Amino acid sequence: MNWQGVFPAVTTKFHQDGSLDMDMFFKNLDAQLDSGVHGIILGGTLGESSVLSLDEKIQLTTEAISYINGRVPVILNIAEGATKDAIFWAEKGRELGVSGLMLLPPMRYAADHREVVTYFKAVANSTDLPIMIYNNPVDYKTLVTISMFDELAACENIQAIKESTRDISNVTRMRNRFGDRYKILCGVDTLAMEELVMGADGWVAGLVCAFPKETVAIFNFVKAGKYEEALQIYRWFLPLLELDIHPKLVQYIKLAEQMAGIGTEWVRAPRLTLVGEERVKVENIIKRGLEHRPKL
Fold first, then answer.
1. Where does pyruvate bind (predicted)?
2. Residues of the chain below pLDDT 70
3. Given this model, what pLDDT does residue 65 score?
4. If 25 and its partner were Cys, which of 13, 61, 141, 146 is the partner (CB 3.0–4.6 Å)?
5. Which fold, 5-291?
């Protein structure tokens, strides 16, 4: 598993009646693949995994793997409250043919140091799939500390970290402590260029769902040392990237996909599509972005 590059956390596409819209899902996958992304992540927050049934998750994973057909790795996100459920999805992911796992700390319970480490090790020891630990204390209230990563280094298949602490210096802190033991991928769109410049290996991206070419261009320019070229795109992109750090990021990004022609805005309850002043505000941000979209 090569944990380097741009990994879209793709949205799950629905029809207005709430049923899966696989045709639009595949259309968006085409846009991602044509733009040169390096992997696809299924079942994250943007994928609305919490409102999908078990059968729908299996269908989405199976059909995505079949459609992508080995062109890039497919990563399955695991966000569960019970250790046995996380192990179930690790085993199911292996059975379905995913290339790796993205793993959050236990959900809905504020686990302590020992419990978090034990949870991660239990899942890692249950599978040979490579794992990326998702470290997002802002949204999920559990900080995976450096001392936890010290203990997790014993699990060879824990290979990468989705860095979403909002602390850019954590990239340097992790490099100083672990060298290249863990690959580091930025998980916050508004800090992506900064963390890539500081040595992050990749970008788990959100607005890539609507703007894949621009996202990949920023990554490629930074890694080629062409910072001015990257910065020109990044400055244009930032008002759009800020849609990723709002509690309604799913609705915002899905609306951006729809306006960009590669998605629909339909979400599942309890989420609702945008209305009123909020909708006008977000539409205006997206409209300005589309009107001034850079020529690559």
1. 204
2. none
3. 98
4. 13
5. TIM Barrel (3.20.20)
